[in-house]
Write the structure tokens for this entry.
Amino acid sequence: MADRDARERDILVAANEYAYVQDLTKGDIVLYVGPTKISLSNTERLVELHAGRFVPVRGEEGTGGVAAFCAADIAQYVVLENPAKDPAIRPVKGSNSAIELQQGRRVVVPGPASFPLWPGQRAKVVDAHALREDQYLRVRVYDQVAGADAPIGAERIVKGSETPFYVPTTGLEVLPDAAGYVRNAVTLLDGQYCVLRGPQGSRRHVRGPAVVFPEAWEDFVCHAGSKVFSAWPMKKERGLHVRATKHFEAKAGEPLSAGPYRAGQEIFLQDQEGFFFPGENLEVLGEVAPLPLADKEGLYVRHLASGRMHTVTGPKMYLPDPTQVEVVKRPLDAVTQQHYGLVDPDPSHAVAITVPPSFAVLVVGRAKREVVRGPAVRILDFDEELEVLGLSTGTPKSDGALLTTCFLQTDGNKVSDAVRVKTSDHVELELTLSYRVSFSSPEPGGEARWFNVKNYVALLCDHLGSIVRAAVRGTPIDRFHAQSAAVIRSAILGEKKENGPRQGRLFEENGMLVYDVEVLDVRILDGAVHRLLADAQQAAIVSEVGRRREALRLEDERLREHVNREVCAQKRQTLTAEVDLAQGQRDLEVARAEAEVEVMRVSRSGRARADALAMEIEGAARADARAREALLERQMLEARTQAFRAQMEALAPELVTTLKTLGNQQLAGELTKNLAPLAILGGGSVAEVAQKLLASLPVGGLRDGIAGVLGAAAPNPPEVDAAGSSD
């Protein structure tokens, strides 16, 4: 049992490993460097450094407490805390007593390196920093650096363009950020810039193209997560609103005019092209776009210095200078919009009033009155308004419900009203009248008086109603019933002139002219009088209708007889014309027949002469053709004869003899083949049969030649015995 416990307390430490053992009686920590075996006694325990304290390692953790050497390759370095006070001391294999350390100090051990840690030391292995040309490191001094006088806490920048591979020395540490140790410089293209912020709020602006490395005390200004900003494009039709951040003096050749500028001064740049880069002296407040104004559109602009308002009208592209002016809106309430005849107006634009034809409006300001007649579009200034009229409505007209409007109808205006009157014989009537009204101004600039009376309808109806009542009061009912329109028109418009219209009724108060009156209805309020007048009128109508009916019948008879006479006269003229037409047709037919006979005679004689001439020409042509053909045939025959004669003369007599002999032999051979059966049947020789056959031929020489050939070639006939058989 004791042997097993002893084996369990033996700890093997391999090469490149180490372990810490604490003496429980003294508290000393001993470093064991492998390869070795640690045999723990009852007063010793295996410990490890954890959170700055040595804590025991539990037995059930197996090989816990044994750690590998701190190792770094050639591309790494080690940051060692609490280095040995004597740098020459090196741990040996086996047990090593604790040494004196420099507490709170750090040293950098470049790779390659491999070593155990003395009790109380901590180490961190860091990869060496490989930098591209557009990358950098931020390095801080935390201790005295050999060969350098930099104070502790000072920072500097290590650029990849100068040091592509960096390992810090003792006294320097590389500061990490959220993404690691290596930081990217800012690459600027054409038209881009960046801002670096230094201590005490100083700023540095850098324009592209460039690769920007910050100084150790600078940081990049970020906006929306970006360190790169685009320069402000400047166009002639646009403007740029900038502000000076401090006092400076601009030089010639800059976008600003040469001269001094104070801090906070706002500047407006326009009519320039290119890029504008903000700097340490200037910041951009915004870009100002032009405001398009069509024809009959406007804007309200306030001068910041004086507060004076003025109206800018189109058509134009208006570019407001924010350092001098500001665009002001003029919102209108719903009632005012209705009075002005506007539907959803744009409050950013000036109020534009559209005046239809035959209408007018009165524009009023603080010190002016102007009448605008349609058709026209009037843009109101900021302090201008339209005069509002309140017109009586209903029939008869009353002020209970006024019609509010800004538009006065100057031509073709029609106002209807109902007037109750009484005749001279005390008959009450109700008249429905319609007045035709216009507004005129004989003197120039007198149109403003049209709006002197806000309710011209009430003035018109009240005044003309009193005139109509006075005129009817002096007229009996029978006369008025028959001449109501003439009485009323004469009372209002004046008596009718012989060669001209009525004078009309002019109102001096507002220049209103009543130039016509229509009587729409005359209603008698007393029923009995109405019936009497209706009966009298009916009787008069019946009498008048009868009289007109008889007159019409007389006129019809007169017209019918006149028509009959006119019909007879027209028929007689028609018959005379038909006779003349028949005579003309006969003369035309005779002339046409004579012309056809003459044409036929001329045509036939011409055709006969043409046929004879054609036959004569055709006969001569045929005779000539036959003569040419005969001559041609005769010439061809002579040519063939001459050719055949030449051929025959070319043949030699010997050739003729040879050909004859060969022909006789071929003919004899064929005869021999075909005459043998005849010779057998006749009992003679083939030559005899051939002689008999050739005797009938008319050619002697040919016959003798063939016979000679047959005699020489024909075999003797076979002998026939008595029995009729042959050998």
User: Anything to note?
Assistant: The radius of gyration is 72 Å. The chain is about 30% helix and 30% strand.
